[in-house]
Specification:
Strand order of the largest sheet: 3-2-1-4-5-7-6
Number of strands: 7
Helix content: 25-40%
Radius of gyration: 20 Å
Structural class: alpha/beta
Number of helices: 12
Order of helices and strands: HEHEEHEHHHHHHHEHEHE
């Protein structure tokens, strides 16, 4: 089984406009697919840093003096690059979300397909897991998670049902969670709604929205003028943040205007939104929701 089948491989790396002697960062190393494509385009003086907080990714390290794998969450990108003596880079790539490997290893608890304990941690060092979210969060916080991160209209009712059920005994695994929420999972829509529930809990466990914001802000600081940011997202919450930040250099509101009334923004868009072809989706079903955005620092 392949560790992770990289989505939009050529398009994402093309977006970086690789200079042979440049310094690049792949903040979602995973199986190393995007990183290996970057390495092909680097010259002898080029450098690539990979980030991955998932301990399993270390098995895929690239044996090349030009490559360094940093086994940390990419929310700390600036700190760890500085540790390696790097203050600015030519390009940064992010393939957000869960890797194929994480989905396919049943005990990680990411997939609705398997019976598993409630975990969903991208790093096993993370103290918060899905069990704690489901069993320890109060009703208001559970509702927030389901409504904000799962975009579930019944989020409040789901939270209430979970809180009542766990008074009897803890909800320990995926089948117990499905049983408790059974009335919200009508046959024809059960997979879709369950995927939204899992997405919501996973985002909370891994603080994915906060991590993404911190990463985008640091990327702007790290990129040289003319440096590229190439980001693949898989759901509307991520894509909205990426789109707004690339367009305005901020997540909410509007940027300031210059003397002539033009918005002062730090990036220029390189491509319109790029999505996979029907052929790629046929070969890799997980590509179906992928959206690639590329921007260049002014």
């Amino acid at each position: 089984m392949e560790y992770h089948n990289p989505v939009l491989l050529k398009e994402t790396v093309d977006g970086l406009n690789i200079k042979p002697g440049g310094v690049y960062v792949d903040v979602t190393f995973g199986g190393g697919g995007h990183s290996r494509e970057i390495m092909k385009r680097l010259g002898p003086d080029g450098r690539l840093f990979g980030f991955d907080q998932d301990e399993d990714a270390q098995a895929n390290v690239i044996d090349d003096a030009r490559f360094t794998l940093i086994p940390e969450n990419f929310r700390f990108i600036k700190r760890y690059l500085r540790f390696h003596g790097v203050k600015e880079v030519d390009g940064i790539l992010a393939d957000l979300g869960v890797s194929s490997h994480q989905f396919d290893v049943a005990e990680r608890g990411f997939s609705t397909r398997f019976e598993a304990e409630l975990d969903m941690r991208m790093s096993k060092k993370n103290e918060l897991n899905a069990f704690k979210v489901v069993n320890d969060y109060d009703e208001a916080d559970l509702k927030r998670v389901f409504v904000e991160y799962g975009e579930l209209k019944n989020g409040g009712a789901m939270a209430s049902v979970i809180v009542n059920a766990r008074k009897e005994r803890p909800i320990k695994n995926s089948s117990e969670l499905k049983q408790v929420l059974g009335r919200f999972l009508p046959g024809h829509k059960s997979n879709k709604i369950l995927a939204q529930i899992y997405q919501a809990i996973r985002i909370e466990v891994n603080q994915e929205m906060d991590v993404l914001k911190e990463f985008l802000e640091q990327s702007l600081e790290l990129l040289k003028p003319g440096g590229r940011l190439s980001v693949i997202s898989y759901h509307s919450l991520e894509d909205r943040l990426v789109k707004r930040y690339m367009r305005n250099g901020m997540f909410e509101g509007e940027p300031e205007r210059d003397f002539f009334g033009n918005f002062e923004v730090p990036f220029k868009s390189i491509e319109k939104l790029i999505i996979p072809t029907d052929g790629e989706i046929a070969q890799n079903n997980r590509a179906r929701s992928a959206k690639l955005r590329v921007a260049e620092k002014k």
